[in-house]
Amino acid sequence: MSTPSPATTASPSPAAAAAAGGPRAVRPAGYALFRAPGASFLVHRRSAAVAAVLAVLLAAACVVALGTGRTWIPPGDVLAVVAGRPGPHELVVGTLRLPRLVTGLLVGLAFGAAGALIQTVARNPLASPDVIGISHGAGAVTVAAITFGIGSWQVLPWLSVAGGLLAAALVHVFAWRDGLHAARLVLVGIGFSVALASLTQLFLTKGDRLTAQQAKVWLTGSLNGRGWEQSLPLLWTLLALLPFLLWAARAQRAVALDDLTATSLGVRLNRVRLGLVLLGVVLASTATGAAGPVDFVALVAPQVARRLTRTAGIPLLCSALTGALVVVVADALARTLFAPTELPVGVLTAAVGAPYLMWLIVRGGRSGLGGRGSRTGRTGGTL
């Protein structure tokens, strides 16, 4: 057996070494390195600035959304109610609008982060939970529970997680052929989406008219009537997953590398990819259980965040904030555009996301669907 000479031995680039997060990592240009006991983080400066701007826009959108409706409430009065001061608008803002807003905010955060994780692993902008069957799996199980009266509304988020995990497992099994190729993953996922959508329609025919109507509204993705009983389980889930999300923001950079480089740096790619996918599935399924399958948020938010930050990979935090901003703004418009009729928020997100999906397909057809989504592609993530 011959030993490779020093001239032919591949050495990791500084960016690759930094992605591995080792103690002697080199800081790439445009990044700031933060160290803590037992951990270190690379933060892209532009991504941090974009995240700050998105957070400010999100806060402003929340205040406007709380004041918008049949009765316009000035921002000062909205902030007073949120701060806990008694006032004449406490019922409208604190009881009716605030729980719905919090639910939409958390749903957007979850969908945005889930889309970023799954697109990073698949290395394909088409690989979002609502396209590859995860949201449809969660939806099918939830609609079956609603139709046949299995469990209460409090257990629906957990049933959604079970359905999303089952759908993800089936897609993974059927898409695996000596590795997980992005084009095959998307095509198999679309096939499962169609099959699960048909199964969901079958469940709708088995229930009574009132139950079927409730399930159909839920399937469009709606925040109407959502309260603390939907938002609190989602909030606790996100808080419980926060340590894993911090790990995911770091692991994304390693998964972004080509397989040979990542393996040479000691990254266990299969385990890391499995962890990222499981995290994305849990996030998307829990959000689906809280508000229904709000389509295209997980598809659009990561790519918008990536273009705003101008990073090679998909920024996790910016994707989550973008998803939250999209849902909050879409819900405010859904409540006011055709007042007094309120549209489900999923109608507006689909109206924006469907043309974007067609544009992605057309662009992918010109350059090949795999494109940068091949197994040795370089689409990754930063915090």
TrEMBL record:
InterPro entries: ABC_BtuC-like, ABC_transptr_permease_BtuC. Keywords: Cell membrane, Membrane, Transmembrane, Transmembrane helix, Transport. Residues 1-21 are annotated as: Disordered. The chain crosses the membrane at residues 48-67, 101-119, 131-150, 156-175, 182-204, 233-251, 272-292, 312-333, 345-362. The keyword Transferase does not apply. Signal peptide: none annotated. It is a multi-pass membrane protein. It comes from the Bacteria. It holds the Pfam family FecCD. It is found in: Cell membrane. Coiled coil: none annotated. Its main location: membrane. PANTHER family: FERRIC ENTEROBACTIN TRANSPORT SYSTEM PERMEASE PROTEIN, FERRIC ENTEROBACTIN TRANSPORT SYSTEM PERMEASE PROTEIN FEPG. Belongs to the binding-protein-dependent transport system permease family. FecCD subfamily. This is Iron chelate uptake ABC transporter family permease subunit. It comes from Streptomyces thermolineatus.
